Amino acid sequence: MRPFLFLGTRAEDDVAQQEYDAVLTGSGLRPEELVRVRLEAGPLGEVDLADWSGIVLGGGPFNASDPEESKSPVQRRAEAELRELALRVVGADFPFLGACYGVGVLGTLAGGIVDRTYGEPIGALPVRLTDEGRADPLLGTLPAEFLAYLGHKEAVARLPEGAVLLASTDTCPVHAFRLGRHVYATQFHPELDPVAICDRIDAYSAHGYYEPHEQEQLKAAAREAVVTEPVRLLARFVELYART
Fold first, then answer.
1. Residue 185's closest CA among 157, 154, 164?
2. 9 Cβ contact partners less than 8 Å away, ≥ 6 residues apart
3. Which of 57, 161, 177, 209 could form a disulfide with 98 if both were Cys (CB 3.0 to 4.6 A apart)?
4. Which numeric CATH code is attached to 4-119+152-193+230-241?
5. Which parts of the sequence belong to the Glutamine amidotransferase domain (predicted)?
6. Bridge partners, 147 (sequence order)
């Protein structure tokens, strides 16, 4: 089998490793089958799509809607590299699954708008599939409504031209969409479990996702939530796209 490529942007080693391990577990892949590149640590380099079965992009602290003057050189480089890769992926209709940060990367293509209109606080919310989502080969493996962990400052305010809306919440109209037949972005996190989301709440306490006094309350609510379905997306992505 050709390996999958995992792209991360998290600077915290423990959180970055936890995210990668969670994607390994959820996808059923071995480390040699999910090759990781940490974009916050160095350039992406050349990516020959023919070498890979598909690409998975994790979440992270970067936001496409951050003011340009506030972006670090690392963020600017990562954004430029991911945009170039995204254009190639969409042009080739190559298998791609971007979780959370994937919305910022894919949502700004082809006239799409990503801004702060539909941000949601950290926690678990019901996500509902659209008719297209229920019929989709990837998202359709999930129930019509399921609970998912999320937390984001930005979201899609206008879908890219030609994008297919697959899922929404009451407070965020675009929680998953598809470009072409094989390029996906989800606003929710398919890889998260209660331990991981609590660790992220701690790790990003100074990143403006919540007020300091809310930290323990958010963790308690996350532990109480029963989130079981979203992780199935990872194994389904591998099932659909693994190739020799």
1. 164
2. 38, 39, 40, 58, 59, 60, 61, 62, 78, 101
3. 57
4. 3.40.50.880
5. 49-193
6. 126
Query: In whole angstroms, what is the distance from residue 55 CA to residue 94 CA?
Result: 8
Beta bridge partners of 164: 178
229 assigned to active site: no
113 bridge partner residues: 158
Instruction: Decide: pTM greater than 0.85.
Output: yes
Q: Which of 19, 100, 120, 175 is catalytic?
A: 100
Active site residue 198: no
Q: How many CB atoms lie within 10 A of CB 151?
A: 25
pLDDT tens-place string over residues 176-205: 999 999 999 999 999 999 999 898 888 888
Compute how many other C-beta atoms are within 10 angstroms of the C-beta atom of residue 41: 13
Domain boundaries, the chain: 4-119+152-193+230-241
Q: What is the DSSP string of 28-84?
A: T--GGGEEEEETTTS------GGG-SEEEE---S--TTS-GGG--HHHHHHHHHHHH
Annotated active-site residue in 19, 40, 79, 191: 191
68-77 — which CB contacts under 8 Å span 24+ positions? 74/40, 77/39, 77/43
Which residue of the set 19, 175, 189, 198 is catalytic?
A: 189
State yes or no: is 84 an active-site residue. Answer: no
